[in-house]
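Backbone-to-sequence.
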């Protein structure tokens, strides 16, 4: 999963990136950082199997270069746009603190509006050109129908993430077109310590979710300080602040939920690992996440749950008790399924 962190200059976007992906590497206008997704189920499996490797699902954060916002000619450079286009989820970091390097006071509503307007203008220009070309060439069919629907929606001032498009519609648009307002969006309010404690900011601190969009808040300065501490010291620091966990854990869960991701698990003496997939994926599709040969030669999936392993103590005991299920290729994978794929190629 690639998460693109975007924001206007002075929003504290890079501080937020540091908090979410400590140790990220800078590369020209874009910085990259990977974090492991915390998963107690992987930890439990590792305690049972004592594997050579333990691998968690990972999220790649991309810190897209900042932009000034609202200026004639567009706020986003080609590098910024490309960074956004490569993201599975966009995160708009919104300034919620006084910045001495800026003359204007924080105005989250203004910055949200400007950011969304930039996305809409980009997509409107792209779709208008495509529709005009198709009409000149007198093309008809599913692609033109889907494009026309998108154009109408954008002209109405709404982002494409709020438009109900079927899988067939998305396929008709084609892989070559990348529409930014179609990407799921997390609006992340970056508050100062004072603003975080201020009752007037209570509304900004409320986590909420709508279709393909969510809103949450973070105190970037504190979270970056937490991220810089050794793991063993983070808990004491969090306890001292009255926080149960780093904000990045909350953020990861929100990003997973927004994309409707789940994780299935594999376990053995060599490796215990979490594999992210979209909710609703079949067993055969999940097998392909590990290797295309397993998907191609799929025979069956042998599945149990972590709590069942905890209750019986070992896979051998689960087999004796008949608790390991054999599922076919069309079985819909569930979050937390522990799987052994049988295949033949």
């Amino acid at each position: 999963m690639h998460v693109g962190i975007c924001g206007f200059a002075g929003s504290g976007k890079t501080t937020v990136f540091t908090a979410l992906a400590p140790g990220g590497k800078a590369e020209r206008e874009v910085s990259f950082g990977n974090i492991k997704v915390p998963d107690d189920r992987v930890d439990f499996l590792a305690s049972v199997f004592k594997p050579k490797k333990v691998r968690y699902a990972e999220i790649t954060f991309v810190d897209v270069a900042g932009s000034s916002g609202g200026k004639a000619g567009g706020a986003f450079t080609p590098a910024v746009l490309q960074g956004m286009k490569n993201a599975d989820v966009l995160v708009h970091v919104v300034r919620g603190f006084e910045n001495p390097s800026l003359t204007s006071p924080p105005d989250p509503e203004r910055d949200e509006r400007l950011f969304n307007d930039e996305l809409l203008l980009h997509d409107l220009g792209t779709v208008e050109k495509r529709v005009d070309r198709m009409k000149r060439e007198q093309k008809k069919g599913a692609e033109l129908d889907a494009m026309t629907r998108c154009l109408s929606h954008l002209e109405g001032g709404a982002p494409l993430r709020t438009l109900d498009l079927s899988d067939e519609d998305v396929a008709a648009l084609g892989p070559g077109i990348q529409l930014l307002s179609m990407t799921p969006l997390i609006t992340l309010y970056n508050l100062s310590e004072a603003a975080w404690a201020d009752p007037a900011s209570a509304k900004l601190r409320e986590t909420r979710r709508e279709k393909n969009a969510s809103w949450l808040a973070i105190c970037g300065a504190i979270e970056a300080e937490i991220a810089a501490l050794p793991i063993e010291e983070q808990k004491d620091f969090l306890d001292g602040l009255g926080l149960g966990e780093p904000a990045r854990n909350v953020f990861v869960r929100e990003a997973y939920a927004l994309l409707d991701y789940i994780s299935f698990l594999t376990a053995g003496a060599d490796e215990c690992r979490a594999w992210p997939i979209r909710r609703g994926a079949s067993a055969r599709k999940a097998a392909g996440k590990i290797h295309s040969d397993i998907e191609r030669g799929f025979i069956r999936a042998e599945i149990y749950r972590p709590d069942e392993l905890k209750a019986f103590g070992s896979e051998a005991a689960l087999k004796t008790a008949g608790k390991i299920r054999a599922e076919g290729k069309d079985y819909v994978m569930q979050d937390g399924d522990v799987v052994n794929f049988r295949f033949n190629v």
